[in-house]
Write a structure and sequence with these properties.
337 residues; mainly alpha; 62% helix
């Protein structure tokens, strides 16, 4: 009675602040009966609130109070089970998001009429493969996509979703680091180029799929492959014969380019491919000397700017017919002597 009298003498703002921070159970019990809903909401969110207090507040007439109970990190699974039948969808969503929720409750909520609740279930780390399998067949594609974000997703579920009619779901599968070589290969032949692009960008891509994508009809996808660091010799060779100059230019900038491909591209008909080679680090003197005699002045300029060009190569450029090339070569030469 004394606590109630004292609490009635302080302002609403002070009672709300007290309800948020106090660890005194008697005070929290008193504040849980406060006539102002803002105060009860604060009590419901307090991690020191006892199960008895939270149980009482889970029956509160205010939706926001029950929602705060469902959000409380100390709420029991029994109370969450009770709140999973709440008429207010945001309460049920918070139940699904609470780390204390049990799989049985999540299974029930996986059939919830509200898609936001089902999305929360799909993202819960308490969702079992059985629950995720059910949600992978949900009518709402956002729910199906959310399944992909769950660490408990299985290869079987990923395979099912790789056949999804919604391209965004298939893109999500292609970005997942758990997909199998079989799924990689399937998606590398997808009729939507955004899906194939996601496959090309996946760090776990297999050599077989890289080769498949190096022949893709979409230039952007082949360019993505050309920039990857883990290409096989077969893929390097395939891309070095690409008809799109931008693909070969990207390939020329690849740090892991084999020597034989460097030599091949240094003689490419496109000047900006040869220029990209001329700007590479650790080029052999043979290739640099060859490019210092290139018919295109931008290629020769790239050689003149190359920090690894030998004094002999730079001296060759002292007499270049383009004054800018000669000047850059001389300045680079002076740094080496």
């Amino acid at each position: 009675m004394k606590i109630l009298i004292e609490l009635s003498e302080i302002s609403l703002e002070e009672r709300m602040r007290l309800a948020q921070v106090t660890s005194d159970i008697d005070v929290l019990t008193a504040l849980s009966k406060d006539p102002e809903s803002q105060v009860r909401i604060c009590v419901a969110g307090n991690s020191y609130a006892s199960p008895e207090i939270l149980c009482e507040l889970s029956k509160d007439e205010e939706d926001e109070t029950r929602q705060a109970v469902a959000q409380n990190e100390k709420v029991t699974s029994e109370i969450l089970s009770q709140l999973s039948d709440d008429e207010y969808w945001e309460v049920r969503r918070e139940v699904a998001q609470n780390s204390n929720v049990i799989p049985e409750v999540l299974m029930k909520l996986s059939s919830d009429e509200d898609s936001d609740v089902r999305i929360a279930v799909a993202k819960s780390n308490k969702a079992t493969p059985e629950i995720l399998l059910r949600l992978s067949d949900d009518e709402n594609w956002v729910v199906r996509y959310s399944v992909l974000e769950n660490n408990n997703v299985t290869p079987k579920i990923l395979y099912n979703l790789s056949c999804d009619i919604e391209k965004n779901v298939r893109i999500g599968v292609a970005q997942n680091d758990k997909i199998t070589p079989e799924i990689f290969l399937r998606l590398s032949k997808d009729n939507n180029w955004y899906v194939r692009k996601a496959v090309a960008q996946n760090d776990s891509i297999t050599p077989e799929v890289m080769l498949e994508l190096s022949k893709d009809l979409n230039t952007d996808i082949r360019r993505i492959v050309a920039k990857r660091s883990n290409l096989t010799s077969e893929v390097f060779l395939q891309l070095s014969e690409d008809e799109e100059p931008n693909v070969k230019e990207d390939l020329a900038k690849n740090e892991n380019l084999p020597q034989e491909i460097i030599l091949k591209l240094s003689k490419d008909e496109r000047e900006y491919v040869r220029e990209a080679i001329a700007r590479r680090k650790f080029l052999s003197s043979e290739v640099l000397l060859q490019l210092s005699k290139d018919k295109d002045w931008m290629v020769r300029k790239a050689v003149a700017e190359n920090e690894n060009a030998s004094p002999e190569v730079l001296q060759h450029l002292f007499y270049d017919k383009i004054e800018k090339v000669a000047r850059i070569a001389f300045e680079n030469y002076r740094k080496k002597i």
